[in-house]
Amino acid sequence: MRSHAATDPKSADDTRKGSRVGRPPRVSTQAIIAAAIEIGLEGVTLKRVADRLGVAVPTLYKHIRSRDELVRMAAFELTLKRRAPEREDLHWSEIATGYALSLYESFVAEPQLVHELMKGTMGPDIELDFLERFLDAMTRQGFSLDEGMQLHHAVAMLAIGASVAAISVISARALGAPMDQALREAAAQREAETLKHTRSVLDTYVNAESRDWLDSLRLMLEGIAARRGETLPSSLRPLSSPLPGHSPKS
Fold this sequence. Notes:
By secondary structure, the protein is mostly helical. It has 13 helices and no strands. It is flat and about 70 Å long.
């Protein structure tokens, strides 16, 4: 005997509609980035990401503008995760330095990220995850959440500023107009009696290396350590992070 449900048009219609009942899958920028990383950045497409998340491609455009933007953000996320220090035996200053280097090297490697940051289009998800990992590491080192947040701000501002300066130097060199040469030529064109202070330090100024920002970072960390009644570990001396094509100071 055939069941009543099989012959009831209303029941059959309800059964067909059942697959559409319920909330649509929730999608976030971070979920999209995670899916792209799982697929692999070389072969990732928006269609493959959408299929993995169970949504339509137009849904992705509510969170990202293009495949290129997605790849940049995913690459940034990968770099931060790979380079952020995770060893339990590290001193808090070594952890902070590792996070600073991960930010610096990520931005220098992908200058477009600086433009995204300046335009406010990078999105909050990566920043939130980075901050959470940093605060987790610092609280395990005896920092309060407020202290950890202040240290995060200081480290991030210094590292991002240094990366912008490094990108400027690299770009000028790539255009065949090294910044040190441009500064010397500009100074030479000024009246001899002008820039008397700047001329005195010009050689040092134009020969500044990319590692110099780490000296500033170390000075900041020394001050924080002093307030905590500590000294920095010898592993932070000396610091170096040369630009591509540059060698660290001896």
